[in-house]
Amino acid sequence: MTQPNVFVTRRIPDQGLAMIRQACAVTIWEDELPPPYNVLRAEAARADGLLTLLSDRVDAPLLAAAPRLKVISQMAVGFDNIDLAAATARGIPVGHTPGVLTETTADFAFALLMAAARRVSEAERFVRAGHWRTWGPTLLMGQDVHGATLGIIGMGRIGLAVARRAQGFAMRVLYHDRAENPDAKALGAELCPLDDLLAQADFVSLHTPLTPETQGLMDARALALMKPTAVLINTARGPIVDHRALYEALVSARIAYAALDVTDPEPIPPDSPLLALDNCLIVPHIASSSIATRTRMAVMAAENLLAGLRGERLPHCANPQVYGRR
Ligand code: DGY
Questions:
Q1: Does residue 110 contact residue 120 with C-beta atoms inside 8 Å?
Q2: pTM over 0.85
Q3: 256 phi and psi, to 5 degrees?
Q4: pLDDT tens readout for residues 212-229
Q5: Which domains, from first to last, does the chain contain?
Q6: Which of 105, 113, 131, 262 is the most exposed place for a label (fewest CB within 10 A)?
Q7: d(CA 205, CA 259)
Q8: pLDDT beyond 80 at 325
């Protein structure tokens, strides 16, 4: 029997790849950088299945030119790079990897929060530059995390996992979302309007998906509501923050610090003014990058892909409405 053709847009952890190789004729894009759009489109045109990453643009024209495509499996929980409506209209299920990266991402959001509060990357640069001459009574003073107020925007799985970590630091937790989250309530977290959260929080951590409503949510107006001592942490998606407004807020000390795992665009251009600021910590979208979690994500992406190729319901489907159409 002929095996289905699958295009995998980058080398993913071995365990996931081995599962796909057993059942499919696989083409892997071996470069460190994503395949150019025209390559992805040409590969999609002859593929039965695609395994994508968040850096691959899967839009309506690509889908229209992919007559055989039965499934798209994204190795990420977020899928804003995929035109979900177009995939659904074509009857193509889109898989993603929710749940498995929750705790790892929350660990990292907290790591950024701590690093920003206590100026860890600045302090490390200071030492490496040979500036450490003595114990200084006011040297690199930061902010306390324990007892501070944490504002979580988006109380989904990851937001909740961050709130749980905050309990260990005796933090007051405020959150903003469309509705009350009973699990957050059980932790003592308080639902509040966005503006109140911004005005009260010492740390604001973003955990919403990127949608038309959240794009640019942290704009000049929102940043101006934050305390001058406040820290913004983004492990969600770069475009939720207006980077020009963020630069202005940081350079004018309107807010104290930003810690970004995600930027707009990605990667951040080397000449971005944000990179010149001491009060901005930027890392390359690695919040889910522990060995165990990236391996689980690859396995889950393989499971979704193989289910779709067999014509079965995807275990983790981003557009379950596709099944209503059958
Ligand atoms: C996701 O899964 O959406 C993260 O941004 C990368 O792990």
A1: no
A2: yes
A3: -85, -35
A4: 999 999 999 999 999 999
A5: 5-99+291-325 (3.40.50.720), 102-282 (3.40.50.720)
A6: 131
A7: 9
A8: no
